[in-house]
Specification:
By secondary structure, the chain is mostly helical. The protein has one helix and no strands. The termini are far apart.
Length: 72
């Protein structure tokens, strides 16, 4: 008789467990999507940083040439 109550209890908790499992899956999906968005932002920032560094190097080289021209 005690085994029957355990099975009945498990059956009553099953919808609760399913709700928790479903909510957990949704949270995991949302977390993965947020991580993908953050990774894309990081890729974009890295690209902008590389572009900025390249432009800075060009400006520095131009500055060196201008200083040479002024000294001549």
């Amino acid at each position: 008789m005690e085994g029957y109550h355990l099975v009945e209890l498990c059956n009553q908790e099953s919808p609760e467990v399913e709700k928790v499992h479903s909510k957990m899956q949704m949270l995991e999906k949302n977390t993965r999507e947020k991580i993908m968005k953050i990774e894309q932002v990081l890729v974009n920032i890295n690209s902008m940083t590389e572009t900025t560094n390249s432009r800075l190097n060009t400006l520095e080289m131009d500055n060196v040439e201008l200083k040479k021209d002024m000294e001549a």
